[in-house]
Design a protein that fits this description.
The protein contains six helices and two strands, in the order ααααββαα. It is mainly alpha-helical. The termini are far apart.
């Protein structure tokens, strides 16, 4: 290989590594869901779930229950997703739908017939 090809290849590899570092910093510290507790490896990549579901043959369900016991009702998994042990708790964090956000033809106070 010529020296210019090696130089461009090294720039590409370096750029990719810088991209991964910036992405990791963003996911761990600046992402809106970064304040939720949970394993940092799971916050970085979705390979965490892949490992438990594929390599350990479907054990992620049990790992998720273990993480809820360890970190509480909310925990940060599978960037940018998070899991909730009790869905009822979502009403504290997610506002109910309103006509302003979903169109005025919807009624949220009275059932439609």
């Amino acid at each position: 290989m010529s020296s210019s090809t090696l130089l461009w290849l090294s720039y590409a590899v370096l750029s990719f590594l810088v991209y991964l570092a910036v992405l990791a910093i963003h996911r761990l510290y600046f992402h809106p869901l970064a304040r939720f507790p949970g394993p940092k490896l799971a916050a970085l990549t979705s390979w965490y779930e892949f490992y438990y579901d594929v390599i350990l043959d479907g054990q992620f369900y049990f790992k998720r229950k273990e993480l809820h016991e360890l970190y509480g009702e909310f925990n940060f998994l599978l960037t940018p997703h998070h899991t909730v042990a009790k869905p009822v708790l979502l009403s504290c964090y997610i506002p109910p739908p309103t006509p302003e956000r979903h169109g005025s033809q919807h009624s949220y106070t009275e059932p439609t017939s």
